[in-house]
């Protein structure tokens, strides 16, 4: 082990060693490995947020009138903006299991509120459930973000992010199949989904809530070399309040704000005003299968690029941002061409995947591409956040701040649609916001993301014996393993 660590910290070997396929397989089998825990949180999000995404992707929560869903989503993203920022601190105080359990259980209530609305057409319960889900989702995503960015080895963060994103979005794929199958033969007159659709979502969300009880505390998660994957310091409410307030003056987080704001803003336009307007009920369900399936493909693409494209971590970050920027520009150009064909004042005839012939192909490919871009954009952001620090405490606050800003943007976006802003204006706003974020992320990578050998050199010049990018170790004879310090 000591020889291996010497190799890691020597100038000849600046990069972390590549794990073999056998070690990866053993990590998968070992319950307390980072890989197993990331896969587990992926399953939790498969059942909770994944199914929520499928429900939202129906447009209007599966209802003919999107007003109730828009109001619920406004309440959701408003409380999520608050609890997203606070979630990292709460996670540091009460730990992952309680945080994730409280968060995932709120998804069940939200799906149940639409079942109630389907029968009684009462918006109040849906709006309250949306607000409660915002609080719960803030907790869930803060915990998920801390695990996803701090558990992986430094040179495998893109791979772990893509694995999580693929499992998580499989929830959207399965969730899209539920309304597609249950509403396949309901005919053109059907506008809202059946009760069974909402019940199906609730079953999956309940399973995800139970799975959170299997999540381990970070101090019990051990890498293949015997080291704890993160340094745990038990926090307090007062400490977390101070540290969270500091985030609003942290230049790294300020550079992240435009990307965070844009990263959920486009959902309203894509779900309500592309999928919800252009396609009939059963086709919307089918489109969701491919939208979330595209996310699985996109996350794998960007994850591979940001882990393996260059030896330099900084160059990998810049390459990832460049690829997403170029692809995103092309997709938004396609969206503009599509949007010029209809408006709020000239609504199109709804397309069906079987009956509309070639007219279906173009809008379908565009919607698929939107899903691809979403995964690549958000996976890229998570990679950048994960490259800013190594400890779970800091990263839980960073990801919480990201989700908070993201959700504030989402809350505004749903209200934009409630106030009937023209479709074209919404598209242009989304395009501009994502485009502005790219150069700021480039600046962040250039200034804050360091290569392993450069970090070592700075640490050694200051007389330090450890690197923030490569964990140092001390012997723990009582624990029988080596721990990060």
TrEMBL record:
Q: Which Gene3D superfamilies match?
A: MFS general substrate transporter like domains
Keyword NADP attached: no
Compositional bias of kind Acidic residues = 1-10
The residues that cross the membrane are 35-55, 75-94, 100-117, 124-143, 163-184, 196-216, 251-269, 289-306, 318-338, 359-385, 428-449
Question: Which family would the database say this protein is a member of?
Answer: Belongs to the major facilitator superfamily. Phosphate:H(+) symporter (TC 2.A.1.9) family.
Source taxon at top rank? Eukaryota
- How would you describe this protein's topology in the membrane? Multi-pass membrane protein
Instruction: Show the segment(s) annotated as Disordered.
Output: 1-21
Q: What is this protein called?
A: UNC93-like protein 1
Compartments where found: Membrane
The terms describing its cellular component in GO are: membrane
- InterPro entries in alphabetical order: Ion_channel_UNC-93, MFS_trans_sf, UNC-93-like_regulator
Provide the taxonomic classification: Eukaryota, Viridiplantae, Streptophyta, Embryophyta, Tracheophyta
| Keywords, ordered alphabetically | Membrane, Transmembrane, Transmembrane helix
């Amino acid at each position: 082990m000591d020889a291996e660590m010497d190799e890691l910290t020597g100038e000849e070997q600046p990069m972390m060693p590549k794990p073999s396929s056998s070690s990866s397989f053993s990590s998968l089998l070992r319950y307390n490995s980072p890989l197993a825990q990331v896969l587990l949180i992926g399953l939790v999000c498969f059942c909770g947020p994944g199914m929520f995404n499928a429900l939202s992707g129906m447009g209007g929560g599966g209802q003919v009138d999107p007003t109730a869903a828009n109001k619920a989503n406004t309440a959701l993203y408003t409380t999520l903006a608050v609890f997203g920022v606070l979630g990292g601190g709460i996670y540091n105080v009460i730990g992952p299991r309680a945080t994730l359990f409280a968060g995932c259980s709120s998804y069940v209530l939200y799906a149940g509120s639409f079942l109630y609305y389907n029968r009684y057409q009462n918006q109040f319960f849906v709006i309250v459930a949306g607000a409660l889900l915002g609080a719960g989702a803030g907790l869930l995503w803060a915990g998920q973000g801390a695990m996803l960015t701090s558990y992986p080895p430094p040179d495998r963060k893109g791979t772990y992010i893509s694995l999580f994103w693929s499992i998580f979005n499989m929830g959207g794929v399965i969730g899209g199949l539920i309304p597609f199958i249950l509403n396949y033969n309901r005919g053109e007159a059907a506008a809202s989904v059946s009760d069974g659709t909402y019940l199906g979502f609730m079953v999956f969300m309940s399973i995800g809530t139970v799975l959170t009880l299997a999540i381990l505390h970070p101090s019990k998660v051990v890498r293949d070399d015997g080291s704890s994957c993160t340094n745990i310091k038990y926090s307090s409410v007062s400490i977390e309040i101070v540290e969270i307030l500091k985030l609003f003056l942290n230049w790294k987080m300020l550079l992240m704000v435009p990307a965070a704001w844009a990263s959920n803003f486009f959902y309203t336009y894509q779900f309500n005003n592309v999928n919800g307007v252009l396609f009939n009920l059963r086709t919307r369900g089918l489109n969701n299968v491919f939208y979330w399936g595209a996310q699985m493909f996109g996350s794998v693409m960007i994850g591979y690029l940001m882990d393996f494209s260059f030896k330099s971590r900084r160059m990998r970050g810049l390459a990832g941002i460049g690829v997403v920027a170029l692809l995103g520009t092309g997709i938004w150009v396609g969206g503009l061409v599509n949007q010029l064909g209809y408006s709020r004042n000239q609504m199109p005839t709804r397309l069906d995947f079987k009956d509309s012939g070639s007219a279906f192909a173009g809008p379908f490919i565009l919607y698929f591409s939107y899903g691809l871009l979403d995964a690549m954009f958000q996976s890229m952001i998570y990679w950048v956040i994960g490259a800013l620090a190594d400890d779970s405490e800091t990263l839980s606050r960073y990801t919480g701040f990201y989700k908070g800003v993201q959700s504030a943007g989402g809350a505004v976006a749903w209200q934009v649609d409630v106030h009937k802003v023209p479709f074209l204006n919404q598209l242009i706003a989304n395009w501009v916001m994502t485009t502005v974020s790219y150069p700021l992320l480039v600046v962040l990578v250039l200034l804050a993301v360091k290569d392993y050998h450069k970090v070592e050199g700075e640490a050694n010049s200051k007389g330090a014996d450890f690197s923030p990018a490569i964990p140092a170790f001390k012997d723990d004879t009582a624990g029988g393993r080596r721990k990060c310090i």
